[in-house]
Design brief:
Number of strands: 11
Strand order of the largest sheet: 3-2-1-4-5-6
Order of helices and strands: HHEHEHEHEHEHEHEEHHHEEEH
Distance between the termini: 39 Å
Number of helices: 12
Radius of gyration: 19 Å
Strand content: 15-25%
Largest sheet: 6 strands, parallel
Oligomer: single chain
């Protein structure tokens, strides 16, 4: 999903694409809505603060042919609302435990934003106690009804919920590390935004890899690898790194207890899901950062650039050359990230 896609949809007049906008989108993607393969996407937690805008953005994606929206309550209204948008996908809403299996059956991509949001004073670790059980239950259903789907984990804390999902899938005999992703795209989106604000680079051309994890100091933006290159001071780099790491807190505090980063997270989730769909459809050279099973460090899971393909992760890419500051950040994050990973694994084994 790109800004060009959203602009092209907004340019619809009398039910038709503006020809140039539609042509540009098809050219950029290599597929048209008419010839793209049939793809079902399920969103678990579709009635929530992230789920609703994410449902809207996925309805705008012409690579989606069926969109299943699931939550414990309130989903039928969201589905009815979104279904009136004149794009390719058929939309159905599902509610409560008894409809979860039907929502999941046949899914190619499952996106999980389910769970409670962060509140002021609440750390991502605080979220663990509430969200871990939700994620475990949903992953048990995925293992039963769509074990070959690509699973995009948004539910926080991602540093723990991805290991939870992995352990659940292992216990059910369906684990494929190529098909499980922690969505860290919001860290990349923020790093790009903040970098452009300081460097005056063209936002459409900005690239900033973000590695590590998805909470606090485990988020490590690699501004030394950012393009277009900018002559930023050490102080600027440190400030940009800190702001990227604290981006979630910045939003929570700005909303004064009335929410967390829902809109930007939905956008980031839609970007990553679109990348997964392109990979499934055989589009070459699709590379995004994601928190996946990895051997590029001694940690079992790590966020880095990954190449996506027809089976999910085709290749986990290395870190590349790091600055001294980034190398220090890498070493500093490992203990906290390991603790979060271990906590997720222990939760599954302790709750069985």
């Amino acid at each position: 999903m790109t800004p060009a896609l959203i602009r092209s949809v907004l340019r619809r007049s009398a039910g038709h694409f503006a020809p140039s906008a539609a042509a540009n989108y098809r050219c950029a993607r290599g597929f048209s809505a008419e010839v793209a393969p049939e793809r079902k996407v399920a969103i678990l937690g579709a009635a929530g603060g992230i789920g609703q805008p994410l449902s809207l953005l996925m309805k705008l994606n012409p690579l989606v042919s069926r969109l299943a929206l699931y939550d414990i309550a309130g989903t039928r209204g969201v589905a009815a609302d979104v279904s009136h948008i004149n794009t390719r996908s058929e939309v159905k809403g599902y509610e409560a435990d008894e409809q979860l299996g039907e929502a999941l059956e046949g899914s190619d991509v499952v996106i999980i934003p389910a769970g409670v949001p962060r509140k002021p004073g609440m750390t991502r670790d605080d979220l663990f106690k509430i969200n871990a059980g939700i994620v475990k239950t949903l992953c048990e259903a995925i293992a039963k009804f769509c074990p070959n789907a690509l699973v995009n984990m948004i539910s926080n804390p991602v540093n723990s919920t991805v290991p939870i999902a992995a352990e659940v899938f292992k216990s059910k005999g369906v684990y494929d590390p190529r098909r499980l992703f922690g969505v860290t795209t919001l860290d990349v989106v923020r790093a790009k935004t903040f970098y452009v604000g300081k460097s005056a680079a063209n936002v459409a051309e900005a690239i900033v890899p973000v590695v590590g994890g998805h909470a606090g100091i485990t988020i490590l933006p690699l501004f030394s690898q950012a393009t277009p290159k900018a002559n930023l001071s050490d102080e600027d780099i440190q400030a940009l790194t800190k702001r990227t790491q604290d981006g979630g807190t910045e939003v929570v505090e700005a909303k004064a207890g009335k929410g967390s980063a829902t809109l930007s997270m939905a956008y980031a989730g839609a970007l990553f899901a679109d990348a997964c769909l392109k990979g499934l459809n055989g589009v070459p050279d699709v590379v995004e950062c994601s928190f996946v099973e990895s051997s590029i460090t001694e940690l079992p899971f790590f966020a880095s650039k990954v190449r996506l393909g027809k089976n999910g992760v085709e290749e986990v890419l290395g870190l590349g050359s790091l600055s001294e500051y980034e190398q220090q950040g890498l070493e500093a994050l490992k203990a906290e990230l390991k603790s979060s990973i271990d906590k997720g694994i222990a939760f599954v084994h302790g709750s069985n």
